Amino acid sequence: MTKQTFGATISALRKEKGLTQLELAQQMGVTDKAVSKWERNLSFPDVASLPKLAEVLGTSVDELLEVKTAAQEEPAGSRVPALVELVLKAVALAMGVGVTALTVMDEVEPRNALGLLGIGVACLALTQLMHSPEQE
Q1: Which residues of the chain register pLDDT less than 70?
Q2: In Å, what is the CA distance from 10 to each residue of 48, 64, 78, 103?
Q3: At what angle do helices 6-16 and 50-57 cross, to 10 degrees?
Q4: What's the distance, Cα to Cα, between the start and end of the chain in Å?
Q5: Is the distance from CB of 74 to CB of 59 less than 8 angstroms?
């Protein structure tokens, strides 16, 4: 089975068995809303009920719990650019908010305000360069 989220695993196995959410819920002794929440990863079934859920879905508890985590989805090297982009956007936002607050309080000279805004604009420009066609 391809690694996926817990909810997607439940949904896929339920559909393979030809069961509706209501039918699975009745076999598990829960509501169809509970099954819906499981499949949308909004809640998790009680740990004690996992063996029964695995049995109803025709699988093992181990296979049922073999889900793909965010760390497994993307290699560590691909997370670095996303982190850099997040930091650059945060700096740009901080510069904008900081200049606005300092201007309202009349605590910044126009020349210094422009310098701070320039840093923010430069950070945003770098995030755009990260998405340029040559990089992809």
Answers
A1: 1-3, 67-80, 132-136
A2: 16, 7, 29, 54
A3: 40
A4: 30
A5: no
The CA distance from 69 to 73, in Å, is: 6
- Quote the pLDDT of residue 136: 47
**Of all helices (H) and strands (E), which one includes residue 97?**
helix 76-104
CA-to-CA distance for 34 and 97, rounded, in angstroms? 43
- Tokens at 136, concatenated: 């992809």
What pLDDT was estimated at residue 3? Answer: 61
SS3 state at 127:
helix
- Confidence (pLDDT) at 5: 85
What pLDDT is stored for residue 1 in this prediction?
45
Give the per-residue pLDDT at 74: 54
Residue 13, classified by CB atoms within 10 Å of its CB into exposed (0-12), middle (13-18) or buried (19+), is buried
Dist CA 68 CA 81 (whole Å): 21
- CA torsion sign, 119 to 123 to 124 to 125? positive
The kind and range of the H/E element at 50 are: helix 50-57
